[in-house]
Amino acid sequence: MTSFKYLIVLFSAFITLGCASMGSAPMGNDSTVTEANSKQISGDIPLPVGAVIKQQDTLVMGSGSAWTGRLSVAISGEPQAVFAYFRDTLPASGWALTSSSFSKTSLLSFTKGERAATVQVQSTSFGGNDVLITVAPAIRPAAGRP
After folding, report:
1. pLDDT at 1 over 80
2. Rg of the chain taking only CA atoms, in angstroms
3. pLDDT category, 71, cuts 50, 70, 90?
């Protein structure tokens, strides 16, 4: 019976070591956006140089201009400047601004083709901003419905 316990402990150790070595990048490492990797990271959503993608809060499915999900980004600067950046640069990338509201937690809504995006900007205590960018398929009302 004791050899069976040792075998289970040994098997558990191998499984733990195997899982720890999976993947090429450790989870939870944030990445800084540079001019060279901005398109690669966010596709058709422009990000300011120096923005930090918070990987532990990000879930992206797909790539390029067809991704959906949530991108969590830390951006330094004044909240008004961050709000203006997204308000002004997304339309230049083909996104149509559908609504916006600037406040303590600001929200911008965009559409592009069959996709909808929301950008939420919230200032932090230390002069930065937490930005959540959510992209999903746009819901269109069915034809003929009031």
Report:
1. no
2. 21
3. very high
Count of H-run helices and E-run strands, the chain: 3, 8
Phi, psi of 89 (to 5 degrees): -90, -30
For residue 129, the cross-strand partners are: 75, 123
Give the separation between CA 78 and CA 15, rounded to whole angstroms.
47
Q: How far are the Cα atoms of 39, 112, 135 from residue 109, in angstroms, in the given order?
A: 20, 11, 10
| Burial bucket for residue 73 (CB in 10 Å: 0-12, 13-18, 19+) | buried
Report phi then psi at 32, rounded to 5: -90, 135
Per residue in 8-43, pLDDT (tens digit) is 554 554 454 444 433 333 345 655 655 555 555 667
